[in-house]
Design a protein that fits this description.
This protein is mainly alpha-helical and 137 residues long. Helices cover 53% and strands 10% of the residues. A hairpin with a 6-residue loop joins strand 1 and strand 2. The longest helix is centred in the middle third of the chain and has 23 residues. The chain starts with a strand and ends in a 14-residue tail after the last helix. Bound molecules: zinc ion.
Length: 137
């Protein structure tokens, strides 16, 4: 098959039988660009879409948890000491959950642990306070 360098466009002829079943990385002899070539019918390895959206969901959950800490600093510190974060921050957590859920409906359904993990890590400073937390609705 003929492949062309995505950077400089130089064309190469690669024998199909050299490609095998797995995509090969090729270095362009003209511009040194490294690119991946697959034999016809072999799919490029893409990270599963689900994994991508879970990491995006995790990122947002951590941002929301950080915001709660930033905007309620004194309250959070007091509640951390008294061990009643879930009660004291209940409304804030619920609001964050709703926002998170509206952005990541599938993850809120399948991976609520991602949201709980962000609460544990950031809001509870690494303590497993929210392992059994569940949204009200
Ligand atoms: Zn090139």
């Amino acid at each position: 098959m003929i492949v062309s360098c995505p950077k400089c466009g130089k064309k190469y002829s690669v024998p199909d039988d050299k490609l095998g079943d797995t995509p090969r990385r090729i270095r362009c002899r003209s511009c040194s660009e490294i690119f991946t070539v697959s034999a016809p019918g072999v799919k490029e390895p893409h990270p599963p879409a689900e994994e991508d959206s879970v990491s995006r969901a995790r990122r947002l959950a951590r941002v929301l948890a950080s915001d709660m800490v930033v905007y309620n600093k004194d309250l959070v510190e007091k509640a951390r000491r008294e061990g009643n974060l879930a009660e004291v921050l209940g409304t804030e957590i619920e609001r964050s959950w709703q926002l998170w859920k509206s952005r990541f409906p599938a993850e809120s359904q399948n991976r609520p642990d991602v949201f709980r993990g962000a609460l544990n890590d950031i809001l509870a400073n690494g303590k497993h306070v929210f392992d059994s937390w569940a949204p009200e609705a």
